[in-house]
DUF456 domain-containing protein
Amino acid sequence: MDSLLLLLGFICMIVGVLGSFLPVLPGISLSWLGLLLLYMTKVVPINYWILGITLAVTIIISVLNYIIPAKGTKKFGGSTYGVWGTNIGLVVGIFAPIPFGFIIGPFAGAFIGELIYDYKDHNRALKAATGSFIGFLASSFINFMLCIIFFGLFLTIVWQNRAGLF
């Protein structure tokens, strides 16, 4: 049973790292699930501090994933229409059957939202959409770094308990 939990945890870690770039997959959540599965083995003693802190970080970053692109739009001069457009575009882009919809969606949503707000000012709409795109890139980078940290923690714990796991 420990081998199965270890394997499932490792798979969750790999998929979590991939999911840090693909919004369709909940990358950080899968990485945390991988840690949880590792701690559910009989060999690895459970550490509530590590699980609690990593869960809190996972929840905070998961919420920020939706806020950061909207804040990027606002920072680059976007209105609330652009912010809402970014959020709607992100959701539509995830489910749209187009390549890179999760990147195009927030950009197009912010652009369209700003054009609804002021259809004459295309430069402002483009600037707000660029802010949305930069926010998305920043969010993806934070996700990737956190998943790599979780994966490193996973590997460290496995290495420390290798005698009982293998």
